[in-house]
Amino acid sequence: MSEPDVPNTGPRKVCVIGWPVEHSRSPTIHNTWLERHGLDGAYTKLAVKPEELLDTLRYLPNLGFRGANVTVPHKEAAFEALQPYVDAPAERLQAVNTIYSHPDTGEIRGTNTDGIGFWTHLIQSVPGFTGKTAVVLGAGGAARAVVDALETEGRMKVRLVNRTVARAASMVSDIDAKATVYGWDQVSAALEGADLLVNTTTLGMEGQAPLTVDLSPLPDDAVVYDIVYVPLETPLLTQARAQGLKTVDGLGMLLWQAAPGFTKWFGVDVSAADVAAARTLIEADLSTKEKS
Ligand code: ATR
């Protein structure tokens, strides 16, 4: 893709590009932060079909956007399109979720903030977390960012458990991870002595079967983190809490992955209070939907 110029004047318009994109909570997050910081900007949704992605990325600046988030199903295609203007996390995950312009040159850039969002939420939720061994359930797109963050940010040893072992093995090789792969029937062995369990599968999500795992092999001080956030309290988290384990829900990962993009587009750091304010709005929305 040739490199378009990004405008540096006028109201700062940013969008989230997805297909479908209607469900996206990103506008709530960024518009809340824009308002809290009194910034002249707007964050909207852009429904883009896969066959329209390249043109959309090429003409983003002409459409008045100075940046974007990229969501399902476009993250990998956006990475291909933006090469070589991507940074190390995007390169490792072969996926882009945030597009911005370089502050000095105005050149368009792609990054991936999913992993740092996952890790920041863990550290915010469990201050002083120093776990050494993590078990990750699932080997889909979300698992890539989680495993990468655990290894690069947390320097943790990862045990990757997936129903389809071959998929987990190819994920490990794709992202150049060191994780050890386990089959679904070996989950108890994987949990033995682990400091952290992370669910990245779709199990437990609204409309999906619950995740049923025997958590008894986990040590008493282990943390259970479910990246599913609809519902906010998944059956896995309820089960972990009942067993006296610390729990971390999935909404914070979504909020904290948004923070680096906001800073790049609008030049303002996102505080824990900003995250809490956006969280309150999304929680209210989720609980209204649950009741209706
Ligand atoms: P995402 O991109 O959101 O991570 P995905 O790519 O569809 O979603 O991955 C879903 C994950 O949930 C996969 O690890 C999948 O396991 P397989 O790789 O074996 O398909 C896992 N998953 C989905 N349904 C499952 C089930 N019933 N039992 C076990 N794992 C399941």
Descriptive notes:
Helix 1 crosses helix 11, helix 5 crosses helix 6 and helix 5 crosses helix 10. Helices cover 39% and strands 18% of the residues. The N terminus is likely disordered. It has a six-stranded parallel sheet, sandwiched between helices. It has a five-stranded mixed sheet with strand order 2-1-3-4-5, sandwiched between helices.
Task: Draw up the topology in text.
Elements: E1 12-18, H1 26-36, E2 41-47, H2 53-59, E3 65-70, H3 75-82, H4 88-93, E4 98-101, E5 108-111, H5 114-125, E6 133-137, H6 141-152, E7 157-162, H7 165-174, E8 180-183, H8 187-191, E9 196-199, E10 223-226, H9 235-242, E11 246-248, H10 251-266, H11 272-291
Parallel strand pairs: 1-2, 1-3, 6-7, 6-9, 7-8, 9-10, 10-11
Antiparallel strand pairs: 3-4, 4-5
The protein binds 2'-monophosphoadenosine-5'-diphosphate.
2'-monophosphoadenosine-5'-diphosphate (ATR) binds next to helix 6.
